[in-house]
Amino acid sequence: MNPPKRLRTTEDEAETPTGGQEEEDRAVDVSIVMPMYNASCWLDECLQAILNQDYTGTVELSVFDDASTDDSRTVVEGWRQRLEARGISVVISGHTSAQPRGVGYAKNKAVSQSCGQYLCFQDADDVMFPQRVALQYEASVLHPNSLIGCKVQRVPEGSTERYARWINMISQDQLLTQVYTSHGPTVVMPTWFCSRNWYLKVGPFNEGGKGVPEDLIFFYQSLRQGGGVVRVDQCLLVYRYHEKATTHSVTEETIWKLRVDFLQERVLSQWESFTIWNAGKQGRKLYRSLNPTNQKKVKAFCDVDENKIQKGFYTYEDSKQRPKPKVPVLHYKDASAPFIICVKLDMTGGVLEENLNSLQLKEGTDYYHFN
């Protein structure tokens, strides 16, 4: 690696690095982008893992502290000498306002003060495996207009078991077809790696602060720009679950609206009619969330519950139309594609999957999962 350069540390907000010869001298292959807020208890493990990377190109660590009230800044400064001795240049900045400004803001600041051609996003509470930067860098060079993810090890073991299984087990094709499920991005944000040029084309991250799913907003915008989604099929990150994680501040309704809007934009706008698979609570909620044009495209609900089927119709009581819309409820074998599946994945003991397979349907053409 190139000899380390000691870079400035500023107590004020990080600004875009100055241009000219100085910026050219700082150019590196990969910037590890790390927003930070009260992460002191995890930082030693996180930074040791960065030190242990087996990537042989040039690396920079760019940290932006979002008004931590613990000793996070001191801990990171304590690692500067070891990181620079390994050839990893370090940029640390932040702000000391009374309140944090949110993870989207901190990510943008950490990116703007960095100079790598490629960006490796790292949460301060997670831990990289030694091969992460090298393998994701290789994938990103091959797919420069894509978000690159990887498989993860979820800790504590057993936490969010279904979610962790979904992260690691969906196929490459499903990385694109399952973008409307409730889980969020099909490659999870703590595993993202991309070219700087792609970040600049898609971004920046939404800076709305607490409660804003800046990762899902960016992910959808990347897809709108024609971006790809790629997963390195090795476990390259320890993905930590804890009660203080920022994801817990995002409400289900916020995510729901984003997903419905994206589904209408990308799928339903292309279909003349469709069936909602689930005549229960989730299926009816989807129907009510659709715009009037797409509500009219719903030709039926389908289900396996005989009680729902025997009722014959779902009546949209809150509709302002007169007469109120009445949508038929059918057995799934009597319904026709395309379908929006509003049944939770991995929750029926394989029954849903067997039923879908029995109809010989193709995901991404004949149906999409929404739940």
UniProtKB/TrEMBL annotation:
SUPFAM superfamilies: Nucleotide-diphospho-sugar transferases (SSF53448). Gene3D superfamilies: Spore Coat Polysaccharide Biosynthesis Protein SpsA, Chain A. Residues 1-26 are annotated as: Disordered. Signal peptide: none annotated. It comes from the Eukaryota. Pfam families: Glycos_transf_2. InterPro entries: Glyco_trans_2-like, Nucleotide-diphossugar_trans. Residues 31-198 form the Glycosyltransferase 2-like domain. GO terms for molecular function: hexosyltransferase activity. This is Glycosyltransferase 2-like domain-containing protein.
